[in-house]
């Protein structure tokens, strides 16, 4: 019911109240860049978001997009419930006005407009960057890993189509593994693009890169879903090339054989909490997107096939102890991913005394 009378003397921490992550994992993940919104969804009024259990308010001013903790420092109300007016974010409860740097510029209840405003009366803001139409946020002052570089979107030929973002009730790593897994295609995606269930799974090698992991694999799709004019072909041979940027971003290039057509799907995940993920995806191709709506619709249909199965996985968290689940040869990418998260970044490290 009440906060302690010596609350101000307690050790300050960035860890959010009720954090669903292990403390060590939270601090590591907080130092990465993560997607929190498509830029086109941040309009002239504040937008609420959540990253690593931290409630965020996103708002635009003449200074650009500001990412702040969704809490007015005066009485703790969610600042995202306010409004932007005259280039200032206004608290919905007492009308305090904040600029694009989170600094309070006006307290309406003070009659003297020249009265000094305490320096500490400011929003907690976070580092952010716009790239590929996505707003990325890092909760620490210095990121430990670069943003993903999606070279296709640097080429004006590849015009981005933004898939409506979704929320999956699963850990971010589970979604990443599913997106980078080809072995489930015949069993899950038979209605959209999957190949034959009896086809032998081709061997592949996982490469370690400056940004993460990559692999290439040939595949025979049993449907012809590509708008490249080859309607004479019922099946399509493709090469899937996956490029994963740690911790949760993947570029998938689909190179269609007997054709110049290339499709890319860019997938990145916001760890909203330890067991809830925001999914952001972009599609593009080198034919100038003859029908962008079809690409988006196809991606949504594929997600609808995946989501209930991925959400049914137990545990929801991604096991980083490689002995916890039984592995098969098709799991090379999954094993490399789990091993890298643990060994390279110390995620999932045992707690003291365990």
Kindly describe this structure.
It is a single chain. With 354 residues, this protein is of the alpha+beta class. Helices cover 15% and strands 30% of the residues. It is built from five helices and 17 strands. The protein has helices at residues 23-29, 172-179, 185-188, 292-312, 332-345, and strands spanning 34-38, 47-51, 54-61, 64-69, 83-85, 88-90, 97-98, 104-106, 127-131, 134-138, 161-168, 207-208, 212-221, 236-245, 249-256, 262-273, 276-285. The strands form four sheets. A seven-stranded antiparallel beta sheet has the order 11-17-16-15-14-13-12, with helices on one face. The longest helix is centred in the last third of the chain and has 21 residues, at 292-312. It is globular and about 75 Å long.
What secondary-structure arrangement, pairings included, does this model have?
Blueprint: H1 23-29, E1 34-38, E2 47-51, E3 54-61, E4 64-69, E5 83-85, E6 88-90, E7 97-98, E8 104-106, E9 127-131, E10 134-138, E11 161-168, H2 172-179, H3 185-188, E12 207-208, E13 212-221, E14 236-245, E15 249-256, E16 262-273, E17 276-285, H4 292-312, H5 332-345
